[in-house]
Design goal:
The protein is mostly helical. The chain is built from four helices and no strands. About 75% of the residues lie in helices and about 0% in strands. Helix 1 runs antiparallel to helix 2 and helix 3 packs antiparallel against helix 4.
């Protein structure tokens, strides 16, 4: 039984990705300090934040909306990680590990959104 948003697997995994992004983004060049690392961190923070906000809203529709925003931020993050890899700012190994986690969050968000949409639609 879920007591609050912190019990959600989606939120837990998204928080772990966020922590990983903060650790890995430290490896990016200092000249990018206000560029790609900053964008990656904002996108990463947005994912669990919007999961939590959506869960805490008063309606299933608001919850789904929060999950969709989280999904969009997760997609942004995926793109930014690929760019950092392609620019050789991140090693292929670091990028691949992060991308696997980001894609796992994507699958969880898709499944959760789909499940809530079915509930909202009713029988």
């Amino acid at each position: 039984m879920l007591r609050n948003y912190r019990d959600l697997t989606a939120w837990q995994k998204a928080c772990q990705v966020c922590l990983d992004v903060y650790r890995i983004s430290r490896k990016l060049p200092a000249s990018e300090k206000y560029g790609l690392p900053s964008q990656m961190r904002r996108a990463a923070v947005s994912v669990p934040s919007n999961i939590a906000e959506g869960y805490s809203r008063s309606s299933t529709g608001d919850y789904i909306r929060g999950l969709r925003i989280a999904y969009a931020s997760n997609s942004e993050l995926e793109t930014q990680v690929m760019l950092a890899r392609d620019l050789c700012y991140l090693s292929a190994d670091d990028a691949d590990k992060l991308l696997i986690s980001v894609q796992e969050v994507e699958r969880i968000l898709k499944a959760l959104t789909k499940s809530l949409a079915r509930i909202q639609a009713g029988p």
